[in-house]
Here is the input.
Amino acid sequence: MPDLMPQSSPASSEPLLVVEGLTKYFPIRRGFFKRVVGQVKAVDHVDFYVQEGETLGLVGESGCGKTTTGRCILRAIEPTDGRILFRDPKLGRVDICKLDKEQIRLVRRNIRMIFQDPYASLNPRMTLLDIVGAPLRAMGLAHGKELEDRVAQMLQLVGLRPEYMRRYPHAFSGGQRQRIGLARALAPYPKFVVCDEPVSALDVSVQAQILNLLEDLQEQMGLTYLFVAHDLSVVAHISDRVAVMYVGKIVELASTAELFSSPKHPYTEALLSAIPLPDPRPREKRVLLTGEVANPANPPSGCYFHPRCSYAEEICKTHEPEFDEVTPGHYVKCHFGRELSLTGVVRMPDR
Ligand SMILES: Nc1ncnc2c1ncn2[C@@H]1O[C@H](COP(=O)(O)OP(=O)(O)OP(=O)(O)O)[C@@H](O)[C@H]1O
Ligand SMILES: [Mg+2]
Here is the structure.
């Protein structure tokens, strides 16, 4: 496993979350007896850390394992292997993979998730008071008048009027619903939030508002984010660092500025090439992603990206590359990460 921990960090700057070798395989079952005939390698030995107050973007095409990674961190699903170390204010430093039920309940006050679809994730039969108040009630954090006050405060924080608390979700637009989801996630004053494509289902005009709100709330509430998206342009402004995932593995991780300006993995180069830029002048070079994403149940040999990679050589077909630190803090899983001169973007895309 590569050493992803920052060197000689004092205890206070110890990351809030450290993920080591995180692996989740889903069994594929067939036939009457539901025999296991294979495994979907949804997340395969993933390593990263997130510092307190930081936003780590997690980007990759559909099915690459982003949501599965987030759900493992919440222990909404059981990881197959690995460690998820979290600095919980009450429990201290814990491995989330090893917690019992009661400890999971406690840690979930501090680790929350925001979902992609603001229509499906809100119960239409519950008022905003019940929706936003549900985690507070379940965790025994507030009740009665205190709970109502807290819900009113949360609604205000996310830009909704407290009087709305007796209404039902159907009365609200997509953007407003995502605000309700945010209020629900943040009501217990968590430390860490997995934002799972929180703006993907929204109109472009509303996306920027929600992203700005997420940034404001991060500052006000001292939040740390794992921000999942399938598109690099969405994470460009909100992330301090970005991890690029391909078929269950992180293939590149760097500070946002460095990843955008000097990508080291051909997959990142292709994702960057797909970003619409404000500058209408034609780009020097356009790298188009061809072929299909590899199947996580039956991935290719060697480097999983080799069938789609225009730089691939023989070794890429036979040997899996290491996750190599090519410059301080810049990791890449490519045999030629140190040699290739790839095209990034000079100016960040506008929000
Ligand atoms: N409960 C499950 N049972 C079996 N396979 C699953 C399950 N959940 C996810 N998978 C598979 O694991 C892989 C990763 O899925 P995941 O939802 O984590 O991807 P994702 O990166 O979040 O994709 P998207 O961008 O579409 O949300 C996919 O191949 C998916 O089909
Ligand atoms: Mg997903």
Residues 124-188 form one domain.
